[in-house]
Design brief:
- With 437 residues, this protein is of the alpha/beta class.
- It folds into two domains: 121 residues, no CATH class; 286 residues, Rossmann fold.
- It is 45% helix and 11% strand.
- It has 15 helices and ten strands.
- It starts with a helix and ends in a 9-residue tail after the last helix.
Length: 437
């Protein structure tokens, strides 16, 4: 790993970086608070901190309450970090007046330091971006070597469920591997970032068997990062002789600041065609996967969860299994007015027709297995998940609905949801013996 890659791979959640930043911030805060004359400065401090807290309330009111830019409450931890950051910056600015050069220098540095500390604190609360590169949307993963499709079953891997016929060979790796691949946009023309790829242990041995396929979609903003699903499937593979699906973490966004809604639109490009044709065709041609839709799964988290359910509903010829982890109830749910205006030209009927609950209505999906999970504290997303799970069950899907204990719309909801989903799907994918439902 070169110097730049090492920088981007720096842990900003659990490593020494966040400890150093918080320690320096605390020292700077103490210095800024201790300034004579004490009585007059105490009043100034109170005014400055109150002004900063007021700014935080204004930011919250505009972004969350007025425009609902995030489509959910960001949690008390985020709001406390926002208030602390704004109050600290306000105190640092107050220290610039009638101060000596050292205090002015420390105050200016403290503004930057408090911003960094607040950003790291909020990021750590969500836990999804664990490295500096991930936070900035920069991947340090390298292109992964692929094993081409093996074609028909071989003598050593006969047809039938893998759990029954697979014998782990000597030298089976203890974990899978992750990397990236650029998926050509030959049909769609959609501009996407390199996809994350996960190959399980069973895919890394000579004469590897064809394995099930999972296409995973992350949230928005977000990155096509295979780290979290790889960790789940490595744990599952360790219990099942190295068997796990091959995973493509596809980029349905292109730009993390945009939401193409997993549709083909004039505004954002042909994201749906990219996912259902370019990605699928590339997987068939380049991955050693089972060429049977019964073993194919579309999965997603948050924004990607809505996409997964919508794509499963519209393309049952591709997906026999669907995982929706903390998914939005419908596309553009957090900015409905803008979505209606910018994407659907004000046509409410066209907008409603693309909502998953309406896509599922009136259709029947025999043999499709659907798993819906959500954090038990994620009050903004629980009602939608329950509604979609009921609609999927009414449409004939075999549905599992599960709430991750004490989980909000943060990292544990994703990791716990993945663990639960593959616990359900392993028998369906032929990777574990059947279980009674």
């Amino acid at each position: 790993m070169d110097g730049l890659d090492a920088l981007w791979a720096t842990d900003i959640v659990d490593g020494p970086v966040i400890i150093v930043v918080f320690t320096l911030s605390a020292l700077a805060l103490v210095y800024l608070l201790l300034r004579p004359p004490i009585r007059r400065w105490a009043l100034t401090t109170l005014i400055a901190v109150s002004a900063g807290a007021l700014v935080a309330v204004l930011i919250w009111f505009v972004t969350v309450r007025t425009f609902n830019l995030f489509g959910m409450s960001l949690g008390h931890g985020t709001y406390l970090w926002l208030a602390a950051t704004c109050a600290g910056i306000s105190l640092a600015i107050a220290n610039l007046w009638r101060a000596r050069r050292l205090r002015r220098s420390v105050s200016a540095a403290a503004v930057v330091l408090f911003l960094v500390a607040g950003t790291l604190g909020i990021n750590a609360g969500f836990g999804l971006d664990r490295t500096l590169g991930s936070l900035l949307g920069i991947s340090t993963l390298k292109p992964i070597a692929l094993t081409p499709p093996s074609g028909a079953p071989t003598a050593s891997h006969p047809a039938g469920p893998l759990w029954r016929n697979w014998t782990p060979p000597a030298g089976l790796p203890s974990a899978g591997t992750i990397g990236t691949q650029v998926i050509p946009n030959t049909i769609s023309g959609f501009s996407s970032r390199p996809a994350g790829i996960y190959l399980p242990p069973a895919a890394l041995v000579p004469d590897a068997p064809a394995l099930p396929l999972v296409v995973m979609l992350m949230g928005q903003p977000g990155n096509p990062d295979p780290e979290y699903i790889a960790a789940t499937l490595d744990r599952a593979a360790a219990r099942h002789g190295g068997l796990a699906p091959i995973v493509i973490v596809a980029d349905q966004l292109g730009d993390p600041g945009l939401d193409p809604l997993c549709l083909d639109t004039a505004a954002y490009g042909r994201a749906e065609t990219f996912l259902t044709q370019d990605v699928v065709n590339w997987a068939r041609e380049n991955l050693n996967i089972i060429q049977d839709r019964r073993y194919w799964t579309i999965a997603g988290y948050s924004n990607g969860g809505q996409c997964a359910v919508s794509l499963a509903a519209k393309h049952p010829d591709l997906w026999s299994n669907v995982i929706d982890i903390s998914g939005e109830e419908f596309l553009g749910s957090e900015i409905q007015a803008a979505t209606l205006r910018d994407v659907f030209g004000g046509d409410q009927a066209a907008y409603d027709a693309q909502k998953p609950i309406n896509l599922l209505a009136g259709h029947h999906y025999p043999g499709t297995v659907a798993v819906f999970t959500v954090g038990s504290d994620d009050t903004g997303f629980i009602p939608g998940q329950r509604l979609l799970a009921a609609a999927a069950e009414k449409a004939g899907m075999a549905v599992t609905y599960w709430e991750s204990p004490n989980g909000g719309h943060v990292l544990p909801a994703l990791t716990d949801g993945l663990d639960k989903a593959f616990q359900v799907l392993y028998p369906q994918l032929g990777l574990a013996p059947p279980t009674a439902r």
